[in-house]
Amino acid sequence: MALENSLVCIIGLGYVGLPLAQEFAKKLKVIGFDLDKQKTLALQNNNRNGNLIFTINPEKISAADFFIICVPTPVTKAKFPDLSYVEYAARIVGANMKRNSTVILESTVYPGVTEEVVKPILEQESGLACGPDFRLAYSPERANPGDEEHVLQTITKIVAGMDEETTRLVAELYRLVTGSVYCAPDIRTAEAAKVIENIQRDLNIALANKLSIILHRLRLNNLINKRYSDFWRKTS
Fold first, then answer.
1. Scanning 20, 138, 166, 219, which has its CA 20 to 30 A from the CA of 131?
2. 59 with 86, same domain?
3. Handedness of CA 40, 42, 39, 137 (dihedral sign)
4. Is residue 211 included in any domain, yes or no?
5. Are residues 92 and 177 in the same domain?
6. Cα(116)–Cα(206) distance, rounded to whole angstroms?
7. Does 124 share its domain with 22?
8. 111/61 same-domain check
9. Same domain, yes or no: 171 and 203
């Protein structure tokens, strides 16, 4: 596939999807899709990039070669992952995708979701079979709100496809917008890597915040140098 002629559709225009759509639009034709009518209309009215359009109409995404799903995965009150946004996005993509499309999930999920949850929905809605008719991949978003150093253009993007050919294709796609690409051995490994990264980040934030409270109560504020102050401000 000649990537320079590809059409990319970003599903979900939040803090992950919107920058991704804008970055891809520097190189390729891009459709940004979101269900929020007011937000999407405002984006389109202020859009000055001829390679990029924003829409709430699912019928307009049917020509896409790549679908990248960037929707939230919150947790329920019972602390279980809420996959409803991922499932709904998969239904929209499945109902509108064409043969030979590549579907990439970026949302934070536990190992198995891409192949055990997203794949069956895509097949059911599209009537196509994963493998012969379309490709499936996972590439976890690594955005860190407030961190101006580790942004899309500088981070290492993890990618994994359903097979080696898909992995190479998705890696080639992301190399257009990011600093470097790491090809994981399989999709479940890439999903696990994202979970581990989030756990590490949460633990670091929790530790930094607790230390800040303790040092403040001990009146040892002089031990809080600028470096750690900046970190706590970004992550609290």
1. 20
2. yes
3. positive
4. yes
5. yes
6. 32
7. yes
8. yes
9. no
Q: What percent of the chain has pLDDT above 70? A: 90
Tens of pLDDT along 163-196?
999 999 999 999 999 989 999 999 999 999 988 8
Q: Among 13, 191, 14, 10, which residue's Cα sits nearest to residue 114?
A: 191
Whether 102 and 9 share a structural domain: yes
CA 184/CA 167 separation, integer angstroms: 8
The H or E element containing residue 24 is: helix 17-24
DSSP codes of every residue in 137-167:
EE------TT-SSS-TTTSEEEEEESSHHHH
pLDDT of residue 233: 54
Query: Which residue reads 């049917």 in tokens?
Result: 62
Domain residue limits at 64? 3-187
Residues of the chain where predicted confidence (pLDDT) is lower than 50: 236
Do 97 and 134 touch, CB atoms closer than 8 A?
yes
Q: Hey, is 29 helix, strand or coil?
A: strand
Q: Pairing relation of β-strands 135-138 and 156-161? A: antiparallel
For the chain, the domain total comes to 2
183, 207: one domain: no
Q: What is the pLDDT of residue 184?
A: 97
